[in-house]
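Q: How would the structure tokens look for this protein?
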Amino acid sequence: YIGDDCLFSWDINFRTSDGHTILDLNTQKPLNLPRDIKIGSNVWIGESVKLLKGASIPDNSVVGAYSLVTKNYQEPNVIIAGHPAKVVKRNIRWDRQNPVTFSTKSSENSQND
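A: Here is the predicted structure in token form.
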């Protein structure tokens, strides 16, 4: 599942299955069944991110470049990054505009105060 208004960089890998089976010796049942990956709305995924089975990215979040996402995250408006990934920043909002645009707005606002 991929939500609305997402931004994807390049070389992103989605792996919903391991490709080979790992069996429990006692029951002969597979231990590594495939699972879906869920990307919420307004999510930005950076370069060379790997998302493994069962991964979930909440709405309004960012996944940092080269991260390995292995679990289900629930809290929206976060930056998830690392290998393996973890929440590294909370209470964020991302925008498609260049950061310089916001720097200029901040400077103009402080001059008007």
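The radius of gyration is 18 Å.

Residues 99-112 form the longest helix (14 residues).

Upvote if useful.
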